[in-house]
Amino acid sequence: MGKEYSLNFYGGEPLLCFGLVKKAVYFAEKLGRESGSRPRYSLTTNGSLITDEAIRLFNKYRFALEISFDGTAQETCRQEGSSARIIRNIQRLLACPDIQLEVNSVFTPGTVQHLSESARIILDLGVPSVQVSISAIERWPKVSLRRLRAEMKALREVAIENFRRTGNVGIANFKGSRGKGFFFCAGGQDRFAIAPDGGLWGCFLFPGFFRGKEKTAEFRKYYFGRVNDLAVSLKKTIPRVAAKYARLSLDNFSTSLGPCLFCPEFETCAVCPVAAALSGSPLGKIPDDVCEIQRIQLRERRKLDKELTGAS
Ligand code: SF4
Fold first, then answer.
1. Residue whose C-alpha is closest to residue 154's, from 303, 311, 292
2. Which of 1, 104, 110, 181 could hold 131 in an S-S bridge, CB 3.0 to 4.6 Å?
3. 268 lines ligand 1 (CB under 6 A)
4. What is the spatial distance between Cα 27 and Cα 33, in angstroms, rounded to a whole number?
5. What would the pLDDT profile of 267-309 be if each residue is shown by its tens digit?
6. Domain 4-174 maps to which CATH number in 3.90.79.10, 1.10.10.10, 3.30.70.20, 3.20.20.70?
């Protein structure tokens, strides 16, 4: 085990099994004391089951928390009446100095008109980072893509306003350096995910993506097996399956217009193959609307960078 590693809790809703989360943290801490390894924790939750005990644990172990909250679209697509409860919980978490908080807001063609205003409202609560996610489960007709263009432009303005006020753009989509080179999926390379049934995958998105596809060749290609069974064949199975994951890189992806390799955005686009395939296309085949969504986001990101550096 390396000196530092990340232990991430995803769902479904991990706080439905808070006792297990607690147990895993105590175990990792004990292991850390014995081996010198240092765990870092993160947890993704819908924010509805946050108790005082959970907040104490998150604060003590300096969790990075990602709360799924869709702002003004929340009541349209999630549980009615959930907004007020989640906002209250966000405020409780913001009062804890050692919790690193990010809100993830998901928008669909049906809720895209809420995008920029939702981000503004969430930042105004004092949340330091908002990730805007564009759902690829539904197809995006031209009219919705047009609205997305306008909303992403407005989102850039929200980010600039926030930067002027706080020195932080606040929108995770616009943060961080993109580095050089082309995108590859890190699933099965430097990370693994264990599903509730004990199945081992390259990343947390895979078990959900392959649910109901257990008899397919693709399932067998990306499934490492159950953790308990793997102990006997670890040395052989891990490299064999990891080699399949290693092919999930942009140079192997394509849209209906041709290979991504020839796209001017090849070195800047980072499209998650699983998210892109949620509407039913095969892994590595990027639907044209998902490709257009990437381009819209990249354009706004570039404009923001220019505005912030004062370039023309
Ligand atoms: S913008 Fe589209 S074509 Fe270009 S690299 Fe991204 S997904 Fe591929």
1. 303
2. 104
3. no
4. 10
5. 999 999 999 998 888 999 999 999 999 999 999 999 999 999 8
6. 3.20.20.70
